[in-house]
Amino acid sequence: MKPLNLFSHAVRAKEIFGVLARHGFADLVDLLDLPLGIRQRLVSRPQPQSTAWERIRLVLEDLGPTFVKFGQLMSMRPDALPAGLILELRKLQDEVRPIGFAEIRPVLDAELPGDIHEIFSEFNETPVASGSLAQVYFARLRPAADAPAGTPGRLVAVKVQRPNITRIVQTDLDLAGWLISQLHSRMTSLQPYDLPAVFAEVRVGMQRELDFANEARNQEYFNALNPYGDRVFAPAVVAGFTTSRLIVMERIDGTPVGRVALDPEVSRDLAKLGARSLLHQVLVAGFFHADPHAGNVMVTTDGRLCFLDWGLAGHLTRRLRYALADFWVAAVEQDAEQVVQVAANLAPSDVLLDLRMMEKEVTLALREELNFAIGHQELGRAMLKLLFIFGRHGIPLSRDYSLMAKAVLAIEEVGRALDPDFDIRSQAGPVLRELQRERMGPKTIIRQARDFFRAGVSVLQDLPGGLHRLIRRVEHDNLTLNLEHRGLGGLQDALAKSANRIALGVVIGSLIIGSSLIVTARIPPLVHGYPVLGITGYLLSAALGFYVIWDIIRHGRHK
């Protein structure tokens, strides 16, 4: 961001810098490119706080909804941020004070295809949920024109975007981007994390969440792929009412899984069901809910699980799903070498890896988080640490792997809230076997053989034409081979410099001999009895000689 834009948002900038100082980050503000007088007016004295990671979370909470959402999205980058910071950012809750219906009503009027009273027979103006980007209301649609008389309308939930939230988010993101770029350029300790690149990706994620049409598509896509439709589902979207700022969906009656009270047997069954559904989403479908925390998973009154808030979803290709399955099996078996090998196969070809150091760090992470000998089983936390290790060693795994790790961590927490003895490994087995059948089944083998045969036939079809072109060029003496010797640039430079010095030596020697002959012959003009041309030749040869000596000393004799 340019300084002029910073000052155009001076009121918000003052709030941000003040919050940073209040939570013990005044030293960061001192590093920023701000005039002293402005910095003194903006920054108050810092107050003692807890750990650095906790203070970062408190800063985001004090800065408001946009920064809370920003922190939540940053928590989905365990490959780029320390595990301690990731776990602290996950505590951010997207719950803000609701605004009055009078402020929401203009958005409804602009996005609905007709008047609110013509579309809804009932509309409760008190929101049932309020987040940083939107508020949710319960309503009842008017019955269809062809419905029998007396048929009640459909109960729905209406998710409406807050007014002017796009402009507010844009302003806050501009300021956050400027702040991050300043800190990245001035703090060497932060540069290995490449925060500007992480921020750029998070910014794209926030902009996608501002488009509610994307969220509606995710819900519909999940319901289409979901094999557990009778027990697990996403709210059905009501056609004809979805826009970038509005979603009308079926109303879900139930309780968030974090507050539900059920019989132990029912709770265990739901924990297994939720885990198996998420694992199927990740490993088999390759499309999954990116943040299934306790507030986004609802237990309905009839005992089903409903995944809410599909603003952000992960997507995995077939190759990434297969690699992830190998990754999980190796991690559970404490096979650090195989974990590193799977990650190395996904690394860019130009990255030089220290495999021994990675194996050492992976071994330590697995022992800390997956120590089955003492009953410590935290697969989600282990994934967070492993992704950070890989990112630090130059393996930028897919962003969706980061979303997957966060989703696994969230579903483990939900599972333990329902069943203290919950173990995600027991639910992963059937899903991994299903993936293995897909991976090694007859259909896959036939498809791979067909692709291989098609590629081979294509190459064979092109081969005669290529050989014919090569022969024609040979016949017409038009074949050119370009050979390049690499690593000889230094030798060429050394030879050129040596030739130049030899030439200077010859010139200096010639000057000395010529000047000596002139002095001996006392060729005029003379000054104090000495020939001017001879003395000039001596001085010039001396200057050139000193230059050669100085050049050798400066650059070294090896050059």
Name the shape in a single word. elongated
Beta strand count: 15
Task: Classify the helix fraction into a percent range.
Answer: 55-70%
Quickly give the structural class.
alpha+beta
* Oligomerization category of the chains in this entry: single chain
Query: Cα distance, first to last residue?
Result: 46 Å
Overall pLDDT = 80
Rg, rounded, reads 35 Å
Total helix count?
Answer: 22
**Major sheet attributes:** 5 strands, antiparallel
- Low-pLDDT parts are none
As a percent range, the share of strand residues is 5-15%
Describe this structure in a few short sentences:
This protein has 559 residues and is of the alpha+beta class.
Describe what you observe in this structure.
There is one protein chain. 59% of the residues lie in helices and 9% in strands. With 559 residues, it is an alpha+beta fold. Among the domains are: 3-90 and 169-186, no CATH class; 443-476; 490-555. The strands form 5 sheets. Strands 1, 2, 3, 4 and 6 form a 5-stranded antiparallel beta sheet that branches. A 4-stranded mixed beta sheet has the order 5-10-9-7. A two-stranded antiparallel ribbon has the order 8-11.
Observed structural traits:
5-stranded antiparallel sheet, 22 helices, alpha+beta, 559 residues, 15 strands
